[in-house]
Design goal:
With about 425 residues, this protein is α/β, with parallel strands linked by helices. About 35% of the residues lie in helices and about 15% in strands. It folds into two domains: about 240 residues, Rossmann fold, CATH 3.40.50.2000; about 170 residues, 3-Layer(aba) Sandwich (Rossmann fold), CATH 3.40.50.
């Protein structure tokens, strides 16, 4: 069985890392898996790069008559949530996919000018599409900021700041509607119960088969290391309770919840607490926080992340909308409990007061309570063991990959039995 994983990048970004982990898990299970990207950052020979000159081509297009669609410049009150119209046509990537001739084409995050919406219908093999965010069933936004208009037909887009029904989101939605109607063999994979529920309620995917399967994680690459050793690696204090977060580098995206985290941290009580931040370096004008903060910058490899998770006492993920966070799964796998709001896919991974804490939605006092509850817990080591056990039971790659293989086999078998046309 030949599987082609398609994602804009291979290891750059959360969706890319998740897609790549699935690809490698399939390959390690003996499946003939390849990954097709337009931005290759690894040296993995099983990853095919469609366009080495992708950046040059994209820049040229951005300066062409297509600039309107790329910049969304007609919507000056647009929010900071990502919006992708996918109008640009500079490649024949669908032809390249068909030349590879896989048994299954598994789409993941395919924005940033990887493929035009209309070209998805040109793919000849059965399609599996993993939802890393809401883009596939929306009029262009990657998260809907809880507007819910994707359930019907978009328009008056909250993300675009639009009051017009026939706006860009409506146009994009209709393009998807027309394109998806031409695809007879597409299975949708929700990475969390929340995103699956959203997809089932959407008018674009309501008639598709939708299954819920999480991203896999290699628990041997993310496991608990000695805390003192781990702190020494990053020159972190051995006598403090360390709170870990990665949202300080994403203050431009309100969905990540930086303001909520800032409020919560300043409500946490304790004289022996310090904050650890990765994903950004110390800014010129640091935010005012009551605790000393260690800025570790960007970490680009799994080994560094494993050491960092092991060094800290609790991970805080204050997102306002979230599908299936890599950082939550990685932290739990390293036996570090997680505190987050009770939203989206967080509920799939965090079991309240068992391996972490699910705070009341957007309640910064409860988020602070959760942090204190974890770091001062009399059964802290039980929390840590429960965190690791959750991952081993439900997200370990050797378990999850078999479920994906079973899904692929069912699709291929059904396609052979029914003889359905592919497009």
């Amino acid at each position: 069985m030949n599987i082609l994983i398609v994602n804009t990048y291979d290891i750059d970004g959360g969706a890319a890392r998740a897609a790549y982990r699935l690809h490698r898990s399939l390959f390690d299970e003996g499946i003939d898996s390849q990954m097709l990207v337009i931005g290759k950052h690894s040296d993995d020979f099983t990853v095919l790069s469609f366009a080495q000159n992708f950046g040059r081509i994209k820049n040229r297009l951005r300066n062409s008559q297509f600039r309107f669609f790329d910049s969304i410049k007609n919507y000056p009150t647009k929010t900071k949530t990502l919006f992708s119209p996918s109008f640009l046509k500079y490649s024949n990537i669908a032809d390249s996919i068909n030349e590879i001739n896989p048994d299954i084409v598994h789409l993941h995050w395919i924005c940033n000018e990887m493929i035009r919406i209309e070209d998805i219908a040109k793919i000849q093999a059965p399609i599996v599409w993993s939802l890393h965010d809401m883009w596939a069933f929306s009029g262009g936004c990657h998260y809907d900021e809880e507007c819910g208009r994707y359930i019907d037909s978009c328009g008056k887009c909250k993300v675009l700041g639009s009051k017009i029904d026939n706006d860009l989101s409506k146009i994009v939605f209709k393009r998807k509607q027309k394109t998806f109607s031409k695809i007879s063999n597409m299975t949708v994979v929700g990475l969390s119960d929340w995103i699956s529920s959203c997809a089932k309620n959407s008018s674009l995917f309501k008639d598709n088969k939708i299954v819920t399967l999480p991203n896999p994680i290699d628990s041997n690459k993310f496991k608990c290391l000695d805390k003192n050793y781990s702190r020494d690696v990053f020159s972190l204090p051995a006598d403090k309770k360390l709170i870990l977060s990665s949202v300080f580098g994403t203050t431009s995206d309100p969905r990540k919840g930086f303001q909520k985290l800032q409020e919560a941290i300043n409500k946490v009580q304790g004289n022996d607490v310090e904050l650890v931040v990765f994903g950004c370096s110390q800014p010129e004008f640091p935010s005012e926080l009551k605790f000393k903060t260690h800025y570790l910058g960007h970490l680009y490899d799994d080994t560094s992340l494993q050491i960092l998770y092991s060094a800290c006492d609790v991970m805080v993920v204050p997102s306002l909308q979230e599908n299936l966070s890599n950082t939550i799964m990685e932290s739990l796998s390293c036996a570090t409990p997680v505190v987050a709001f009770s939203i989206g896919g967080n509920r799939d991974m965090i079991e309240h007061k068992k391996n972490g804490y699910l705070a009341n939605c957007f309640d910064t006092t409860d988020l602070a309570n959760g942090i204190e509850w974890v770091i001062n817990n009399d059964d802290y080591f039980k929390l840590c063991n429960n965190a690791r056990s959750k991952v081993l039971a439900e997200f370990e790659c050797s378990i999850v990959v078999k479920k994906y293989i079973q899904l692929y086999e069912e699709i291929v078998s059904n396609n052979l039995l029914t003889g359905k046309p592919l497009v």
